[in-house]
Amino acid sequence: MNKSILAKVLFYLIGIITVASYSFYNGFPFINGDTSSYINAAWEDTVPFERPVFYGWFLKITSLGYSLWISILAQCLICFIVVKKSIEKFSQVKDYKAIFLATVLALLLTHLGWEANKLLPDVFAGLSVLLILLFLESKSIYSWFYLIAVILLGTFHNSHFVLFALLAVIGLLLNIRLPNYSRLRLLALLGCSIASYSLVSLTNYIDHGEWQLGRSSEVFMVGQMAESGILQTILNDECEDADLALCKYKDSLPNRGWKYVSNGNSPVAKLGGWGAMEKEHKKILRIAYGTPKYWPALVTSSVIRGLTTCFQLEVGDGIFRYETSSNIQQSIKKYYSNDSPAAQWNKQTILTIPFQFFTIWHLVVLVTLTVCSLYFWYMNRLTQKQLERLVFCLIAIVLNGWTVAQFANVADRLNTRIFWILPFIMILTIWEAIRHNRLPREV
């Protein structure tokens, strides 16, 4: 084998192992209750009620039907490739040693390592934003291949293609006054969002004959209204005239959206589950969005919940202890019996990971990187393109926060899945400013 090819293969192997080191530290990839939905749907050849099936297919294909360890290594390979491309583009570093060092810094100083090692599609939200940035800044014809990856990753979660569409629209609006990115490429990004939406809807049509994103979107939206208090207001106003089964629970609604959606003692569960409540939930949504007096509360809740999500940065959100009887443990036992012992006995399940320490560590790092970035900006040591990247990341984080707050949940992991791109870009920006010792820009 040619020495250069051997060196490249060795470089990627070391990169994969380095990114996957969090799984090795835990003793198994991190699992979540949602992981079982993806696994079960893929192996049972159906589409989940609450999410797309594409990430489940990713796990099924990459695991080779044998082990989820192979899937997490494949996931870490994708992460390493995108991170490597980003380092090369945004810092002009080409040397293998420097790229490896920058990757290690990204793993140590951002949430990337935790996100990349979850058996969830979360990390692909941040990777998609990096791919979009690479596409927008590249002038090569080959950069259009980035869009193919964006379309595929957009099918992993319903919020992904919504985020892409919002980024494209905001980019086109800003482009009117500040033509930073090609309008053609922004329109192509909007096309990617439509393509991802179409693929997700197509799988639902093939599965149960309806062209839709999912069969339970309304339960999540009503759950958010329960969390914000709007649902109780609606029930107090409408129960005298409207025939709503939820009226009997209007004074005991859960105070968190996920409790309304998933808790076994929630009104939804007591009234028969998502399917049984579908018509009533849709009726409540029609009342809420069709009645002007509720609009101010809906807008206020939308803004507050969206901004609140942007400050959710706890590392261990969703990485709980899952008992042997839990759905995820049963799914692993059923489809990946070789993995079952490790899934039931690791640092996650015996609760020995100091998540509070890591959360504080990342907050300290974030503050430090922010201060350094502001210093270099104040000293005119950052280029216009570097400033634009940082602003782009901030916009992506805010739009992601708003999207998940409206259509999913206010949860730390739904913010950390994308927030890591900001400190990552900060690292590369500071790296370049120091490495080149750039003179201040002329005013």
Structural summary, described in words:
This protein has 443 residues and is an all-alpha fold. It has helices at residues 3-19, 21-26, 33-43, 54-62, 68-91, 96-109, 112-116, 123-137, 144-154, 158-175, 183-208, 217-228, 230-238, 257-262, 267-270, 274-290, 295-309, 327-335, 340-344, 355-378, 384-407, 412-419, 421-436. Helix 1 runs parallel beside helix 6, helix 3 (33-43) crosses helix 4 and helix 9 (144-154) runs parallel beside helix 11 (183-208).
Topology:
Blueprint: H1 3-19, H2 21-26, H3 33-43, H4 54-62, H5 68-91, H6 96-109, H7 112-116, H8 123-137, H9 144-154, H10 158-175, H11 183-208, H12 217-228, H13 230-238, H14 257-262, H15 267-270, H16 274-290, H17 295-309, H18 327-335, H19 340-344, H20 355-378, H21 384-407, H22 412-419, H23 421-436
Largest sheet: none
Mean pLDDT: 91
Total number of beta strands? 0
Order of helices and strands: HHHHHHHHHHHHHHHHHHHHHHH
Cα radius of gyration in angstroms: 23 Å
Binned strand content:
under 5%
Structural class: mainly alpha
First-residue to last-residue Cα separation: 54 Å
Number of helices: 23
Helix coverage percent: 55-70%
User: Stretches where pLDDT falls below 50 for ≥5 residues?
Assistant: 439-443
Shape: globular
